[in-house]
Amino acid sequence: MAKTVRSRADEQFAATQKKAKQFVKDKDKAWQELTDRVAKQKALRLAKEAADQEAADLAAAEKAAAKTKKSSRATKAQ
What we know:
mainly alpha
């Protein structure tokens, strides 16, 4: 009878250990998915910021070129 109780306890312990390992595995998977999603969002945000900065630089360069062109016309007219 003592073996039966012990074997049952061992089985319950093994089942608990298996559940604990699965829980840790699932938690690690969820954490990795979250980390991947955050990294992807950060990459997208940085790419958008770089594109916005490039567009702003281009617009500023065009504005400066137009201003220079205007001032050179005014100088030629005098």
